[in-house]
Structures are given as C-alpha cells and as structure tokens.
Amino acid sequence: MRNSSLYPKLAFQSVRNNRKFYFPYILALLGDVAAIYIMSALCRDPGMKDIVPGRPNGYMYVTVFMNIGQVIAFLFSAIFVLYINGFLMRQRKKELGLYNILGMGKGHIAVVLVIETVYIGVLGIGGGIVTGLIFHKLVSLILHQMLGMPVPLGFYISWDGMAWTAVMFLFLLGVTLLVNLNKVRVSKPIELLRGGNVGEREPRTKWIMTLLGIASLGAGYYIAVTTRTGIDAIVTYFLAVGLVIIGTYCLFTAVSIFILKALRKNKKFYYQTSHFIGVSGMLYRMKQNAVGLANICILCTMVMVMLSGTLSLYLGTDQVIREQYPGDITVEVRYYPQPVEGEEDWAPFDPDAMLEGITGFIEKQGAAVRNVQTSYDLSFGAGMISDGVYTTDRFNASAQEVVLITCITESNYTAATGETLDLAPDEIAAYNVKGGELSIRWMVPKEGTELGESTFRIVKTLKDNPHFNPDITRLVTIVVPDNVINDLWARQAEAYVDNWSDMRWYAYLDVDATEEELEELAKIQQGYYETNLYEEVYAGTGSWMYCRWESRSEGAANAYGLAGGFLFLGMFLGFVFLLATVLIIYYKQISEGYEDKDRFEIMQKVGLSRGEVKRSIHSQILTVFFLPIVVASIHIVFDFNMVEKLLTMFYIHNTTLTALCTLGTVLVFFVAYGVVYVLTARTYYKIVER
C-alpha cells in the first residue's frame, strides 16, 4: 500500500464501475450547483439595479426572490445529497468489505473515499459553476420577460457568487464524507461483505405511529379546509404543512403496513396468486422503502403546489390590474366628511372641485382626458359577535373574529354593475353576511361604553364582493343609500375616538397619452405636492389628508414584477425538486431491481410460471411507485382552499382560474411522472431479467 498512485486509481475505478449510481448523483449535484450560482449571480448583477430607472421595485423583487430561492434550494440540496449518499453507501458495502478482507485497513479505505469525494466535487461543483455561467444569461432573459422589464446588456460573471456557491457545496460534501468515514469506522468487515443480504423480519404494526399519522393528516387537512382568510392562511400554513408531512411519513411507514395486514387477514382476498404475492411483497417493501416513497410524495406535492399557485398568481394578474386600475390614472384622496377636534380651518371636501383641478392639471400638460369615473367608500374594523352582529370593540371577549366592514354607496354600486337597488334608509345589500339583518353596536374599544346601535335589513345578498380588497381578514361589504354613508362615518369616528377611519374618494381617468407621459404626469404632480406648489391644482378642494396618483402602467409593472418573480422562483425551485424526484425514483428502481432479481428466481423455483411472477412483480412496482403521486394529489385537493386564500392576499379571487391551473398542473405532472417511471423502469427490467 505504499504506492501513492494506487488510491487515486482505485477511487477512479470505483466511480467508473459504479457509474450507473454515480452519474445521476453527479448530474443532480451539478444541477443544484448551477441553480444556486445563477440565483446568486442574479442578486449580484450590477445591471439588475438599473432594470427600470426610477423604479427600484424590480431590483428589490429579484433580490428578495433569489435570496429566498438560494436558501430553500441549498437546504433541500443538503437533504437530497445526504439521502442519495446513504443509498450509494448501502450499494457499496460489499465492495468496501472486499477491500478490507483483501488487506486494506480502514485508514486506506478512508483515503479512497476522500479521493472519490474530490472527484465528485470537481465534476459536480466545477461542472455546476460552468453550467451556471453558460445558462445565466438565458435565465436572466426569461426572468426579465416574466417581470416585463428590459434586459440589462452585457455578460456578467459573479466571482463572489462562484466562491459562495463552491464553499456551500464543499461544506456539504465534507459532511457526507464524514458520515461515510464514520460508517466505515464502526462497521465490521463481515457486515460490509454481507451488504444487503441481511434477512428482513416481517414489519410490526406500529399502533402509536398509525394513530399519529391519522391524527396528523386529519389535523392538517382540517386546518387547510377551514381556513377562511388570507391572513389565517399565512399564520397556519406552515403548521398545516408540517402536520401533513408528519402524517405522510407515518402513512407510508405505519398506516400502509396496517392496511396490508388487514388485507392479509381477509382470506378470500389474500389466497389468490396475484393478491398473495402482491400483498406479501408490498408488506416487506413498505418497511424498506417507506421513507423514500414519502420523500417522493412530499416532493411531488411541493412541485405541484408551487407551480399551480404561482401560475395562478401570474395568469390572474391581468384581471387584478383591470380591477384595481379602471383608468389610465388612479387618484386616491382620503378625507373626513365632518370637522374633527383641532381642525379650526376645516372645510368640506369638494370632489367636484378636486376632479376639476385634476383634469385641468392634466390638460395643461398637453394631454386630453377622455373618460372619468369616481367612487368613494368607508372601511373600518369590527368584531363579529355572530354572523350579522358586529361591534366596534373588536377585541372584546364576546367577538369571535375580527372582520373588515366596507361601506359603498348605492350610486357607486349602480355605476359599477348597472343594477338599481332602490334602497330605503334602513335597507342594505350585503356580501358575506348570513341572515336577514345586520347590526353594528357602536362601542368604545376597551372601555365597553356603548354609544348606540345601527340595524339594517338585508334586501339582497351579494354573491361576489363589489369592492376590490385583499382578503387579509374576513370581509363584509355592504351597499348603503348615499345619504347614510356619512352618518356611518360619524358613528365609527365617535366610537374609535382618535383611531377612526378615513373616507376614501377615487377618480379613474382615461388619458390620451403614452405610458411614459402618464408616469411623468404622476411625477410632476408629486413634485407639486412635495414642494407646496399644489395650490394651483388643489385650490378650493376643501380639507383632506392624503392624495396619491398612480398610473396603470406603473401599477402593472409592480404587479407583474411581483407575480413574475413568484412564478420564476416557483419554476426554478420546481425544477430542483423535480430533479430530485427523478433521481429518487431512479435509485429506487435500481434497489427494487436488485431485490426482485433474487425473488424472481426463487418464485419460479417453487412452481410459479415466469408470466405469473412477472405480472405480480410489475403490479407491485406500479402500485408502490404510483402510490406517492396519488397521495400527493389528495394533498393537493385538501390544500386547494388554503392556496386560494393565500392568493387573495394578492387580490386574486378567481376560483375558476386557480382550479384550472391546479388541475392542469396535476395532469401535466402525472404525464411527466409516468414518462419518468417508464424511462427509469428500463434499468429495473435490465437488472431483473439479466
């Protein structure tokens, strides 16, 4: 063992002889390294800072999403690499044991493993960085297309990104090396030489784990289907995900064994050739492969949830923009319709004068106003005592949950929908309220002082929310007569003392101008406001506290920047997770092949025909490998409500679109999963029929 060139040769020979194991592993490592380098380079690319001059949100979105992506991708890569490394070591036990029997000490084996890790690092990390350099520009083009932003010129190489990526994966390979060296250190030569030939006992029914799995899945599903608002979804999403993950692992390790044993007890079902072989085979197979199947199931679920959710967000953004920006320019004014303490020079807000000043200002800049729409509303928080009964003391012990009550006028509702309601002073139309009445108890928060009560008869229940709002809490929208809304403002202002809500007035203007001219108009107006020269525009408009202009093009750029960033991140991470899913399936096919090769021969020796044995084994393989995606699809069904509520945080309320995106994603993934199975199954058949 003094020949120093022996170890590199042995290491190279080992990697080459086991290339059907190592090649996919190195390929996956290369893909992970390339993905993380690209995300790191996108964060550091100086050209990204000038995506759109004067609009920093584009760079902010890229930086935030890519940083999040790096963390998620690396954590997942760590789990994935450690899992695959464990599989590789199990397959190589006989080889390492033979080295030991032939005279190599554990120290010499350790040297071989170190050199093998160096080879893998050079090919995986080095190749990944080179691949990342090649594809960085292409990915940058795709990202900017999704964000709707111009592509920065030039080719950027991030030396910091290279160093950071290399350090992360060198650390990861170092951890796997330490794990492997420890396994060699504690193993006996005879144990290594016997490898996977150690007999397996029949798995026991684990009642505690079975009950834990059922309880965890049930709790996770219950949280998902009972989530009512976007803010609830944010608070409980990771709890629900954690419960479902725990339940999934328990499902495959314990619940599946419980079901298979129950089938075995059914004598009529069990004592048939195909059922006998299939049930008994899967019973032992589940014990050995439960964790791998659970990993595949969770990965499939993650890919489908990310792609369907981000695709729904991206495709629904166009409708959001149309609803949020009915005109080329949106002007929002916040005001109070009655004088408040300390406002001695208060004057009523005059919306007509405000509209005249706005249109005059736009026309003075050389643009023509073609169409104008206006509306105003009032929103305030309340506590729901029961459905239809609310209190302004929203954190009172009797309040079940906090809701947001939005009041819009009958005239605005008619202008938006074309429907005339003819409401009496005590009548309303209501969204998200059950029953025939709505009552608001005007109470001072924390004091419990009751100032009165307003009760309205609900003459029409609205199926859709007529007001555009993110679903941050439970929404209640009411349409009231025009002369009632100011009274409601006064009542809530009295109840909330210093924390009362403002009235909001909106003007939506269509203007004959280019997008650049519209954005310039908004900037000029902001300059008037900030330099106290706005009397020319706002003289005679009365008292108000806040005025904001926003062009549709700017709002659309921000909306698509956010939605495109999410979709890009979902696709990028989906690629990483899908790559891992393919690799896990591939390695499971190999392990199943080597196991079934011996079983294939034994069953023929005891009298079963080759056709019966082959059909039985193929039936088991199909059942076992398609079980994860079936369970993943069930997860998707229960998760749909929670994803839908999360999307409402981004103003997406289109259930049909979300359902179609989810269904399409699941169907496409089923097809892709089937293709992957067919391709990887070839390796299995070659091993079994050899």
List the topology elements.
Layout: H1 6-17, H2 19-44, H3 57-91, H4 93-101, H5 106-147, H6 159-186, H7 189-194, H8 207-226, H9 230-265, H10 267-270, H11 273-324, E1 329-335, H12 351-364, E2 368-386, E3 389-391, E4 401-409, H13 410-417, E5 427-431, E6 437-443, E7 450-462, E8 474-480, H14 485-496, E9 503-512, H15 515-530, H16 535-538, E10 546-551, H17 552-605, H18 610-648, H19 655-688
Parallel strand pairs: 3-6, 4-8, 5-7
Antiparallel strand pairs: 1-9, 1-10, 2-3, 2-4, 2-9, 5-8, 6-7
Helix pairs in contact: 1-5, 2-3, 2-5, 2-6, 2-17, 3-6, 3-17, 5-6, 5-17, 8-9, 8-18, 9-11, 9-18, 11-17, 11-18, 11-19, 17-18, 17-19, 18-19
Taken in chain order, the helices and strands follow as: HHHHHHHHHHHEHEEEHEEEEHEHHEHHH
Question: How many β-strand stretches?
Answer: 10
* Percent in strands: 5-15%
Can you give the helix content as a percent range?
55-70%
Distance between the termini: 36 Å
Mean pLDDT reading = 79
- Per DSSP, the total helix count is 19
Order of the strands making up the biggest sheet: 2-3-6-7-5-8-4
Give Rg in angstroms: 33 Å
The low-pLDDT segments are 51-56
Major sheet summary line: 7 strands, mixed, barrel
The geometry reads as: elongated
**SSE class:** alpha+beta
Structure description:
The protein is 65% helix and 12% strand. The protein has helices spanning 6-17, 19-44, 57-91, 93-101, 106-147, 159-186, 189-194, 207-226, 230-265, 267-270, 273-324, 351-364, 410-417, 485-496, 515-530, 535-538, 552-605, 610-648, 655-688, and strands spanning 329-335, 368-386, 389-391, 401-409, 427-431, 437-443, 450-462, 474-480, 503-512, 546-551. A 7-stranded mixed β-barrel has the order 2-3-6-7-5-8-4. Helix 5 packs antiparallel against helix 17 and helix 9 runs antiparallel to helix 18 (610-648). It starts with 5 loop residues before the first helix and ends with a helix.
